Structure formats: C-alpha cells, structure tokens
Amino acid sequence: xxxxxxxxWKNEMKSYLLAIAATCxxxxxxxxxxRIMVSYFSRQARESDHDGYDFMLAMAxxxxxxxxLMVSLYAGMSFLTIPAGVTSWVASGAIAAVILQAAIWANxxxxxxxxxxxxxxxxxxxxxxxxxxxxSLSARxxxxxxxxxxxxxxxxxxxxxxxxxxxxxxxIAIALGVQSILSDLFASLSxxxxxxxxxGDFIIVDSYLGTVExxxxxxxxxxxxxxEQLVFANSDLLQSRIRNYKRMAERRVVFxxxxxxxxxxxxxxxxPEWIEAIIADLDLTRFDRAHFQAxxxxxxxxxxxxxxxxxxxxxxxxxxxxxxxxIYQKFEEEKIDFAYPTQTINLSGHSRIKQxxxxxxxxxxxxxxxxxxxx
Length: 375
Prior knowledge:
The chain is an alpha+beta fold. The protein folds into 3 domains: about 5-180, no CATH class; about 190-245, SH3 type barrels (Roll); about 250-335, Alpha-Beta Plaits. It is about 60% helix and about 15% strand. It has helices spanning about 15-45, 50-60, 65-75, 85-120, 125-155, 160-175, 180-195, 235-240, 265-280, 315-335, 350-375, and strands spanning about 5-10, 10, 200-205, 210-215, 220-225, 230-235, 240-245, 250-260, 285-295, 300-310. A 5-stranded antiparallel beta sheet has the order 6-5-4-3-7. Helix 4 packs antiparallel against helix 5 (about 125-155). The radius of gyration is 41 Å and the shape is elongated.
C-alpha cells in the first residue's frame, strides 16, 4: 500500500503534502512581493517628492506577517476536507487578520497625511497643525474601536450586541472612577478647539514661562527658557491665567529716568523733547509720551512710554539698549547727572566742640572723685 494513499482525518497524505506545498509557496511569493514593493517604493520616495510613494511605502512596510500567513493557510486548505467547525474558526481568523491589516493601513494613511501637513503648515500656521493632530488622534481611536468591534462580531459564539451593552454599563462605572483623567481629556479638546495657544507659542502661566512644544490628551508640555521641560495638567492649565506673547502685535514699554535736584530748570523742560527725538529716530518704535513725573526722595523722576512694533523680545532689548545709550550720551553732553540713592548729614561744628568739652570735664571729675576716695 502506497503511503500517499493513507487516509488521515478524511484526507489522503498526498492532499496534506499539496496543502503544505501550496501554503509554503503562497507564503514565499507574498513575502517576496512585499520585499520587492518595499525596495521599489523606498527608492521612489527618496528620488521623488510625491507623497503617494510615501503612502505606498508605509503600506508595504506595515503589511503584517499574520495576514500573509492567513492568506497562505486559506490557499492550502483548499486541497483539504476540513470540518465545518475548524473552517469557521479559520475563516474568522482570516477575516480578523484582514480587518487588522486594513486598520493598520488606514493608520499609515493618517500618519502620512499628518507628516504632509507638518511639512506644509508647521511654521506658517501652528494652529492648523494643532487641529490636525487632534483630528488624527481621533481618527486613530475610531479605527481601533471599529476594528475591535468588527473582529469580535466575526468570532463564532460572540454576541456583539450584549457585549456593547455591557461595555456601556462598564463605561459609566469607569468614567466615575477616572473623573480627573476625563477632565484633562475634555480640557485638551477645549485647548484644541478654542486655541488659547498652539505649538510654538511663548506663554506665561502664573510664574512659569516657556514655549509650547506638545499638547497631549492629559498634559501640555512647555520648554522653559532655562532648558527644563514643564508639564501641566490640561485642566489645571485652563484654570490658570495664561499670557500668550506669541500673539502680541506690539510691545508697550514703560521706563523711568532720574536726575539730581541740582539739574537746571531749562534742562528739566528739555529732557522730554530730547527723549522723544531719540525714540522717534529708531526703527520699529512709536513714541507715546515723556513727562516729569514726580519729586522723588533723591531724584527728579521722568516717566517715558513708547511702543516696539515687533513682538520679538530680543528686538525690544536691542531698541531699549539703543535708547539708554543715546540718553546717557545726551546727558553727558549737557552735563546732567543721573541720580542715585544718597544721604547728606550736616553736623554743626559748635555741637562737636561742646560734646568734646563735656566729655573732658566728665573724665576730670571722675578722676578727682577716684583720688579723693583713695586718700
């Protein structure tokens, strides 16, 4: 008796050999096809700026081994007589693999689209970039939910309706237990939709300041000027007072100058005019006012207000430095002294002499009393 004719589980041995050969053959062909596609689209993506090649490359790279295996098994099973129960489970596994692979491909499409928007709008429109990130995250969550429901719906013996109802009741219980997390989640949606700040904005929250570099579902991360990363819960962030300097159109600057009380009246009248001329000669500035404000404890105080027509902080400091140097030069030319904290004490010469005489007399009296007591 030929061993190829031996029947095992209603199939001859030659049928098993054909099934194994078909499975291995299909698996090898699919794997080689995947490798060829990855190599081809990788080369095209490097040589071309077309986004379609990036998408095709992402799809080829993310084609999973389980999908290839299920397709190969399905091809091999066509040579065998399989019990209905096993066939249903294999078919369910194949459907689950296809659904999972479709979800992975859809996620690749979302990733490629997000990268494309990052290149196009990251510098020109950060607000749009923030919105796109939120939409991409929502799309990914939706893909996961849909894929999970479809896979469970195709499993034998699983009632998806009862499962969804159970998840609804369990979701309410979980929501009560994670109120703080949900609060941060809704706060993140508020940040994304209302846009009090976006990626790249320089903000101040209470006494903390820095540049926004990440807006997540629970936290927002800010890079401070000193280099460390500050992490804020989204709900706490929206309850704080936020100052967004990135959206500043112009900067109002107030500073003061103090001169000594020995300054002549004519100079006091001219100082506001000199300062106005200094500020008006600089680019990106708009003079507002300069006034002799008050008689201070040790200085005659002038208050000056002007606007810098650029929100950049370094530009503001350059302009303020130029104003300070010009004021110093003008005061030096006019021989006007800047005031600083001083205190003058006048002592009468007669009082010092009287105090000295009293001290001498008291010393002499003490010596006389000491000699008398000794005698």
